[in-house]
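U., I forgot to send this yesterday:
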Amino acid sequence: EERQKILDWVSPINFFARQDEIFSKRQADTGTWLLENDDFKKWKSGEEKMLWCSGIPGAGKTVLAATVMHHLRKEFIRDVGLAIVYCNYKDQEIQTPVNLLSGILRQLYDRISLSENIKSLYRQHIERKTRPTISEISELLSAEMKRFSKIFVIVDALDECPEKDHCRGFFFNQLQAFQPTTHLMITSRPEIAPTVEFRRLEIVASKADLDRYIDGRIFISSRLKDLLHEEEDRRRIKEAVTENTDGMFLLAQIHMTSLATAISRKELLETLSNLTKDLGTAYEKTLERIDNQEPPERTLAWRVLGWISHALRPLSMRELQEALAIEQGSTSIEEDALVNANIITSVCAGLIILDGNTQIVRLVHYTAQQYLE
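Result:
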């Protein structure tokens, strides 16, 4: 009980929950190309200490980062430290350098006992009702890292780490200071360039992974299975979707959601022939589908998107349901007025996702936030 109290105090950010959420949504057997890549193997073996994975928005970098962490957890025993940081445009207020470093520290304690150093720091600050400084966390992190034979740290979406007050640069410099025992892997958009020498690796949605993803989406969609009469139909979907992804898993996701809403074979084939490689156009078509719904569903969808895109922090499904149930002039919320969670997600045509573990509702990607703005 004391251990859990100290861990919760160490970091307000739980990257374990985010890791589990992302990996649970991964299509089985995807991402193996990265694990078999020579540059990745050199990084894992220690021949290369830093690996920079860049890719366009929606290329699947975050899922690959989760795949790598899952692989490392299975590969290495307790004397190897593991930590992952998921930077997120929606969490910029709490993703300060001290909180991100604290998040790494908390994950390292998953594999080692709590030291007297952390217990002492905890007692001091609890007594004073203060939080540790970044210097204290950095010093403690350096000391605890020495308890491992080596350490792997993955930072996903460094480009989404806030630039305000030089947060991104400061955090990155702190990570570099933990060399040489730390193996550092960064994922980012191409326009964010490393300031030091990194082994570079480009991330794109591979054809094999796209095929597996499309097969998976067809398998879980009873409507698609009903409309696809022959193996040739499945081949046509794979061909058309893959040709119109432009290296983006996100586009494949949007396209498959669009196809899964078809109510006839004719509509399915028409949708298939009108797929686009342009992400903005794909979002535009998704919003058109929302607008083509019946008035109650259309109104609900726009209210949901409004709440999620303008909220100062990520909302839980319960919070979103209560926000939608608020009526002008009322002082309470009736339980019967809460909109069903499945209806909320379905009317938004794939633009929102619900984390089954934390029950947090998010837009499908940060590019959706940019488009809605």
